[in-house]
Write a structure and sequence with these properties.
This protein is 4% helix and 39% strand. The protein is mostly beta strands. The protein folds into three domains: 178 residues, Cupredoxins -  blue copper proteins (Immunoglobulin-like, Sandwich), CATH 2.60.40; 170 residues, Cupredoxins -  blue copper proteins (Immunoglobulin-like, Sandwich), CATH 2.60.40.420; 185 residues, Immunoglobulin-like.
Length: 633
Amino acid sequence: MSENTIGVPGNSGIEADRGYADDIGAVDGATTAASTAADVGGLTPYLDRLRVPATLRPGGRPETIELKSTWVRLHSQMAPTHVFAYNGQFPGPTIEVRSGQRISVAWTNRIKNAPYPVVAGEEPAVGGAPARHSAPGRGEGFVEIKEVADLPAWSVTHLHGAETGGGNDGWAENAVAYKDAQLSEYPNGQRATTLWYHDHGMNITRWNVYAGLVGMYLIRDEEEAALHLPSGKYEVPLILSDRNFETDGRGRPTGQLLHKVRRASDAVNPESGKIVTLPFSGPYNLVNGVVWPYLDVEARWYRFRLLNASNARIYNLALVDEENRPVRGAIRQIGSDGGLLPRPVAVEYDAETRAGLSIAPAERMDLLVDFRALRGKKVRLVNVGQEPAGTADPARDVLFPQVMEFRVGAAPVGDRFVLPSVISSSFRRLSHDIPHGHRLVVLSAPGTTGGAGHPEIWEMVEVTDGSARPGQDGVIALRGPDDAEPKVYRRISRTFDDTLGFKVAHGDYEVWSLLNLGGPTHPMHIHLSQFQVLEREVYDIAGFDPGGATTTSPVTYTGANPVPENEQGWKDVFQVRRAELVKVMGQFTGAHGRFMYHCHLLEHEDMGMMRPFTVMPREVLVFDHHQPGHGGH
């Protein structure tokens, strides 16, 4: 294989697209069969045009958005798929507002006695063949979870990244059923940014989102307008997701949504013996609800609003030509989750590290792509699949790498857009010099005693009086880069229903340190505020004992990973890799109430990796009962 091409993984017995045939290599011993352009998992890649969701621009009246049961064709060679969708569209309409434009939305449930769209089940993990678990259809040993078929259309909508009061945020237990409406108000007092809305129903988010309840939400302001970025038909939302489907007798997908997850035989709850369920991964990549679409583009600059709306897949994307060679110099990132970056950042595939455009579930990227040098060519966005060193995608099985194709017109185009050297002159980088409080959040390893086998969120407080010692359940010894002696922390909560621990004074800056003690990369999301990633510290985690749920020797700082330039903007989702402590800083302002933070691997969120916190006026907290964790100092 040429070092100038990208090796795209395949799998034994599964045919791949001819465009990748010469560059598909073995992965974990698996090899690919001969390729045909007409059959990739029973479907032809790049056959269907990309759909662009309708744009909804609310006016002065309250807006009603209806949740409906409908049928959508996800690929022209596959039967229609039953979905739940906002206004009957999958994805839902792109809502567009101006900064400071307050709107009200009645998320109204119109789904009456509809069969639940998703067939869910588990199959046993099989060592040595990772891609087998994301193969189309049911595998050997598949066991359906019958209770999912009986689920009602019970949903609550969360506007992800919005600064809005706790009563409007989409609290997971405040879901509504048929005929009821969730009334939410959004002040939109934020900088120009890319948000999104999705279901957040308690215990069943993974299936409700999978059923189709997602959509994009854009806030615009004057700073963005002054850049004269590509707009209109040259600004396109790209909502990524992965899916699996039931198959017919010939192994071809039928269109019926199948949520198939693995039972990991090497991750067992030591108390109950229950086998742990791993996050979902599907073989088919969808963009805007179309499997492997194409988009006709002109030879000019385009703006793409990229969102990963998958349950668990962390995409590692690369732009390649028809010979599978990386396309250089075409992509610039100008914004992240919470708004514009200070300057454009070149995004390139690194052949040595296999690092591409890494985007985890719920992350957003504002991208500019220059097609001027690609006149008359076809270029493709592919999921490279082998994550950069030091990361772990919990859904890293990549059976079919195809994502979408861009078909660049041959005609010359007069494009007056000039890439500015500065994007946001108003951006300011946060630093430790700002007075702030501290929180320590530990992400426990799978199989830790007391966690039912699943990773958990542990909220910690420092103990200085000797009342807690390493070796005790829920006690962690941590030696940071400036610590002569390790600090000792005690767990104050581990489940969603444990006592409320984190109480924040409105307007306070806080640094939250998120420590991953083992397991996959967790994309952590904190509601209400936008943050900046300050540091990515690396730790020796060998001293953590999952069996004792404690440390037998201190977890010790060993170095730091650089914070990439495109990760130094405003964010509300942070990839926390194994053995990393990620420090994020933000100001809790703009609203009050009870909010949540959680892992955005939806299977993890539903299985316990979610915790509440409150934001109150400082004058009110003076009269608080001062439970552990108040103040964060």
